[in-house]
Amino acid sequence: QVRLVESGGGLVQPGGSLRLSCAASGIIVSTDSMSWYRQAPGKGRELVASITNTGRTNYGDAVKGRFTISRDNAKNTVYLQMDSLKPEDTAVYYCSASALYGQGTQVTVSA
Fold first, then answer.
1. 32 to each of 14, 51, 63, how far by Cα in Å?
2. Per-residue pLDDT tens over the stretch 22-75
3. How many other CB atoms sit within 10 Å of the CB of residue 59?
């Protein structure tokens, strides 16, 4: 059974940073493609970043140059480092693998 548990969300001021974590079980993050999505109030879910089993990364246009996806194979965990945060980054962030999603973690960027 695949289980994805996100953590690390919170309230941060514009320009600040947060690091989200996604602890996975039932899958091996080094052999699966892993992704982060987000959903802001009133909007659809959008791809933020993904990393393939070969380590190739891909980012949504809105976060390129500010966010970094990575993984720790020993911990079977995927991370999303978010820098230079903007109010428009406010959303629930979800970890995804094998078409499944975790419960999400709220990120709020506000002064």
1. 33, 9, 22
2. 999 999 998 989 999 999 999 999 999 999 999 999 999 999 999 999 999 999
3. 17
